[in-house]
Specification:
12 strands; Rossmann fold; 434 Repressor (Amino-terminal Domain); homodimer; 13 helices; 3 domains; six-stranded parallel sheet; alpha/beta; DNA-binding
Chain lengths: ~350, ~350
DNA sequence: CTGAAAGCGCTTACAG
DNA sequence: CTGAAAGCGCTTACAG
């Protein structure tokens, strides 16, 4: 059962496919095509179960109505939720999205961008891994529609939509200070990514503003591809000695670290928040049901996803005109639960 | 900066694009093209930064090298992880995947299938919502390559790859029985989906085999789009009366219910496993860090994803020949943690 | 108001 | 061994 084409309809009616194309694309009025013939075309289209071939349209018009999404890992709930918002907003505009997980690996993301280009995607939404500056610069130089999410490169002039990580970490740390915590630790990742660095900077600034000396022993930097053992070691160093704990609070820079960290803390027989208070970035599901529900910095995922799509689509539709570069920084949402005591 | 086409290379060298196409597609040997000219073509391709236009290839060959994935919700970690495996295996074979979240809504999935068809995807991996039998039948009738995952329709002859839900629930319930639980409840969803029904059936069979009468008051069926309140009501009915609890154990049929359920149990001031033992389907992250880490039925996501891709790709490559229908049922992995006591 | 024609970038019989 | 040509299914100037 072959799919029906424009030509099939045209032949069926003895008219040209130009005509058929016009009416099916809603240009009947514009070309003042008689209502009668209009109706006929539509009826036959329905009867023959006609569906336009997007690939052919894509080849002809140069627009495939699909956007490429490159994130670290779709299995990570943070990106999963973000992906969902992006998919939804894209669908609202008739766009498809192709997902690619880069694992924060620049070689992978480079290859993925190349593949997506071959597939002629109209634009990109990218959460760029570290050391991918060149790839991003190339996109910008070629005037390809794209927007960065979650992180950006300050030195590259391009669209991005991120969150005020500095401010969020600053407030989170202050929250801990206000509740009387003195030795606040931060566990973060060894990645040269602006968002992670801003979190640690905000944390440090809050301490400085409270006239607390920064103790680098309290800042644990894990390798990017960390596992339970890495987290366990840091936790042990920070709160392992029951009678002489280095830290009385921990700010986790990601929920992946946080979830593992809480498991380790509980393995040590420690209580949250009594022994150690906790704040984490990202509102993971796990945080609502763990022993002591965790106070978190939640990101406005819906807004990030929706805005990201709108920015690329706008770029796509106005590719010839030079649009104003969009640099958007959203506020986070601080959700207080029980992990910091009161 | 326009992209370079086959024609550009051909002109550049004063040869035909047929030739260029042959060498770039590795058919040089087959057509005994001189090594010298071969080399030249490759050099120029590189120099001009040539990348084949997949859309054009797709139009010509009828194959787009992309597969459509329809699941309930990519933000749900279960599907996120599955999606990741699928993406990975597809990429290994040079295929892209377009994700669509159906929200278990058959109208949505129908529309998504239609959209994907317009985009000429080569095949589908689908986790079909209830009442989508007709859509699946239509695909089968049209001989379109696809495979069902997570659930299937027993009355439809087609490829699927699922898990032995009956067996898993049977064993989980037996585990609870062996630990001395007498009044085991099951909280599931009001969906006419084979996987959910099999879970409750396995649970009931285990009780029957232990000569325990089935008490329908212990089987709670939530509306599909359940929220915290629905779960809370069920939990309250089951274990709300401290001195006269209906249930002493709960089998959660999904981790989404389970995560909410554990939160409710803890809100009631109850202890797991002392007051109530718990087993849940799906190994959610949250389950490792909650008060009492949860014993779960884990699904072999890697194998499901990988096999699903292999089945569709095989169908795609042999679309004219009638392949044997693949009906695959995988075993689950029972992970014992602390939520059932010992 | 309507149609013939070109062309998007490729692949692939066909001919020599 | 190599090239001219057709055609995948569409859109869109152009002509009348």
């Amino acid at each position: 059962m072959k799919k029906t084409s424009l030509n099939d309809i045209a032949k069926h009616l003895g008219v040209s496919k130009t005509l058929v194309s016009f009416v099916l694309n809603g240009k009947a009025k514009e070309y003042r095509i008689s209502e009668e013939i209009c109706k006929k075309v539509q009826d036959v289209a329905q009867e023959l179960n006609y569906h336009p071939n997007r690939i052919a349209q894509g080849l002809r018009t140069g627009k495939t109505k699909t956007i490429g999404l490159i994130i670290a890992d779709i299995a990570n709930p943070f990106f999963g939720k973000l992906g969902r918002e992006i998919e939804q907003e894209a669908a609202r505009h008739g766009y498809h999205v192709i997902f690619c997980s880069s694992d924060e690996n620049p070689e992978k993301s480079e290859q993925q961008i190349a593949m997506l280009q071959q597939s002629q995607v109209d634009g990109y939404i990218i959460s760029p891994p570290m050391n991918s500056e060149d790839q991003i610069r190339t996109l910008a130089k070629r005037n390809i529609p794209f927007v960065l999410i979650d992180r950006y490169f300050p030195e590259i002039e391009c669209n991005y939509i991120v969150v005020d990580n500095f401010d969020a970490a600053y407030k989170a740390t202050n929250h801990l200070l206000a509740l009387g915590r003195k030795r606040i630790a931060n566990i973060t990742l060894n990645v040269d990514l602006q968002n992670m660095k801003a979190r640690t900077e905000g944390y440090k600034q809050a301490l400085r503003d409270a006239s607390i000396e920064i103790d680098e022993n309290l800042v644990k930097i894990l390798p990017f591809s960390h596992d339970n053992k890495d987290v366990a070691r840091s936790i042990k160093e920070l709160v392992g000695k029951k009678d002489n704990m280095l830290a009385d609070a921990i700010l986790f820079s990601t929920s992946k670290i946080g979830v593992m960290g809480i498991e380790c803390i509980s393995d040590l027989g420690l209580k949250v928040p009594d022994d150690v208070a906790i704040v984490s970035f990202d509102n993971a599901d796990a945080y609502t049901i763990c022993v002591s529900p965790v106070t978190v910095v939640a990101q406005p995922l819906k807004e990030i996803g929706k805005t990201a799509v709108q920015i690329v689509l706008n770029e796509i539709k106005n590719q010839k005109t030079l649009l104003k570069i969009q640099k958007i920084t959203l506020k986070t949402n601080f959700i207080i639960r029980k992990s910091c005591g009161s």
